[in-house]
Amino acid sequence: MAPRVDRALWDRLFARTADSGWPLQARVREMVMAAISEGWLLTEPPLPSTRELAEQLGIARNTVLLAYQQLVDDGVLESRERSGYFVRDSHPVRRPPQRSAPSPLTNEPAWENRLAIRPSRQRNITKPQDWLSYSYPFVYGQLDPSLFPTNDWRDCVRQALSVLEIRGWASDLIDGDDPELVEQIRTRLLPRRGIWATTDEIMVTLGAQQALYLLAELLVAPDMVVGIEDPGYPDMRNILALRRAQVRPLAIDEAGIVPDAIPADCRAVFVTPDRQCPTGASLPLERRRRLVELAETRDFLIFEDDYGSNFATTEGALPSLKSLDRSGRVLYVGSLSKTLAPGLRFGYIAAAPGIIREARALRRLMMRHAPANNQRALALFLALGHFDRLLRRITATFAERMEVLHEALARHLPEFTHDHGITGSSLWLGGPEGLDGQALARHARDAGILIESGDVFFMSAVPPQQNIRLGIAAIATERIEPGIGALAQVARRLALRPPGETTGVRRPSTAAPSPRLVPG
């Protein structure tokens, strides 16, 4: 339903005819007609009541009533019993302009010279906002709406809106968090990863993204040497660039980062040990221990982004780096985006009390705290066991989808190499020699298929092009096999293009296919 025309706009429209000399009734009619013709007044909702509008304009109610009735007689308005006056459906209306025409500016600042930073120029992962409208959305970081626990979440939101609960969250928390949510994170989420923390070692954030930004702002000084996996998470690379850090690429192999290859001058490293972003490699236990040992020996910090932590709760899952840390050098970031919903923006930090204290103070300057009503709803969602049920359902669904994806790839794209694991919600593929992932992604999108080109994950100014990433969280299971079949058709068409044309996949050569992981 369209919003009501606000009081200020009615006043402005009515004031236009203040010097016209017209009777008040005529001025009211003109005001309503202007609101319709300029697109401010649509067929819904109703106009203000005669009493409401008369009081606002400071005129008699009968004057408004007569003006409304005249517009009814003219076929502009219609009166609905017990509902009010509405613009008649048959009367031509148009949408209001997106914005009013800008006033001409004189001596406007040269913004190009005023901007201290230009984050819009950084290389980022991009996804179309209308990804749901695509036939085969192999996008990562989005969630199939059918998987969202609508009824359970609605019940928790309803409970959070009870009088008793509102008293607990409605006040300004300043730099604090909902104590019930902190307790749920402390007792339910962190222990799954082997982490035992006190309440002063936990802070709630608007997703893992805000957590990483806050920690970088606090701990990464200009010119500080920081290592990051390559290929790795582009947003963290860009955050470090804004801090003007000296970013060192940390090459990875099929097991993830190699601890002993970390440059000696690194003062911090950023890692995704459980499911390396973007390759999905799981760092072996011996490497995890070695990485934590080196952090203490060389005195560097570890930013552990455990974004896939909720899928690391099955039997035999490897412990987090934070659980192995005895010196406090691991700064742990968790997220619920991959299991609950990315749009809800739930993340958290587990770190030493001194770090959490400063992070709270910094967050207060940015936005004080995350919305407390959502925090309380999430606390109830966790406490009532809804999250555990959701996790079991999503884990089973993703395992099924991953198995279908593997079978479809073997059938339709056997020349692509990939990991054969069945956990997580994405798969990193290495294409045949000469694959242009960007071109393949563009042509696939034209065919209703959304995939990610892998070049954005590499630090190099001229990154490798033969990798792509496929996500399974947003696409229904039954759409996977036909989607990969359609992708294969796009790849075949590109491979047959004559030399000199823009291609996405060249004919496979007789040489061995390129490795799945390409060092930066």
Question: What's a concise summary of this model?
Answer:
The protein has 520 residues and is α/β, with parallel strands linked by helices.
Task: Write up what this structure looks like.
With 520 residues, the protein is an alpha/beta fold. Helices cover 38% and strands 12% of the residues. It is built from 17 helices and 16 strands. It has helices spanning 7-15, 24-37, 50-57, 61-73, 111-114, 150-160, 163-169, 179-189, 207-219, 234-242, 285-298, 321-324, 353-367, 372-383, 386-412, 437-446, 477-495; strands spanning 77-80, 84-87, 136-137, 202-205, 225-230, 246-253, 256-257, 268-271, 301-305, 330-335, 347-350, 417-418, 426-430, 449-450, 452-453, 467-471. The strands form 4 sheets. It has an 8-stranded mixed β-sheet, sandwiched between helices. Strands 12-13-16-15 form a 4-stranded antiparallel β-sheet. It is globular and about 85 Å long. It starts with 6 loop residues before the first helix and ends in a 25-residue tail after the last helix. Residues 93-99 and 502-520 have low confidence and may be disordered.
Strand-helix topology:
Elements: H1 7-15, H2 24-37, H3 50-57, H4 61-73, E1 77-80, E2 84-87, H5 111-114, E3 136-137, H6 150-160, H7 163-169, H8 179-189, E4 202-205, H9 207-219, E5 225-230, H10 234-242, E6 246-253, E7 256-257, E8 268-271, H11 285-298, E9 301-305, H12 321-324, E10 330-335, E11 347-350, H13 353-367, H14 372-383, H15 386-412, E12 417-418, E13 426-430, H16 437-446, E14 449-450, E15 452-453, E16 467-471, H17 477-495
Parallel strand pairs: 3-14, 5-6, 5-8, 8-9, 9-10
Antiparallel strand pairs: 1-2, 4-11, 6-7, 10-11, 12-13, 13-16, 15-16
Helix pairs in contact: 2-4, 3-4, 6-14, 8-14, 9-10, 15-17
